[in-house]
């Protein structure tokens, strides 16, 4: 089993679990995710899944398939970074984003319609950051974290001596 190859995958797994753990800890302090934040969590789940696949099947995978899985991981990183940047632009009001988290309730004729309409709406608006640290929302911090994790994983890959 390629030790350096596994160190790359383990790093991605650990950094993704750390990010998800932090997100779930925030919920204990009543900081809940919006719809876009949930999508960003799915990126981390994908990173864990594909990196774990590389670790568990390392001996049985051809080099070409390992490179294919690496590209999936990098695409997930890029998708996560893009989604985070998209959310930051929405929060800064540079992009208009219409979704169920920013729409209003339409005409209501009965209490049942009101109840079902309220249940179908997100509780947290995507365009209003719940918390900012150093003038950066959690989505902005997520972008920086993903960039850092991507760069560090590329350094690990470079040191491993494999090229994509």
Search tags:
single chain, 164 residues, mainly alpha, two-stranded antiparallel sheet, 5 helices, 2 strands
Oligomeric state: single chain
**Topology pattern, helix = H, strand = E:** HHHHEEH
Supply the number of structural domains.
1
β-strand number: 2
Structural class: mainly alpha
- What fraction strand? under 5%
Mean pLDDT: 81
Q: Spatial order of the strands in the main sheet? A: 1-2
Question: How far apart are the first and last residues' alpha carbons, in Å?
Answer: 19 Å
Overall geometry comes to: elongated
Uncertain regions spanning at least 5 consecutive residues: none
Largest sheet: 2 strands, antiparallel
Query: Level of helix content?
Result: 55-70%
Number of helices: 5
Give the C-alpha Rg.
Answer: 19 Å
Give an account of the 3D structure.
By secondary structure, the protein is mainly alpha-helical. The chain has one domain (3-96, 109-160). It is built from five helices and two strands. Helix 1 packs antiparallel against helix 2 (35-56) and helix 3 (63-91) packs antiparallel against helix 5 (138-160). It is elongated. The model has no long low-confidence stretch (mean pLDDT 81).
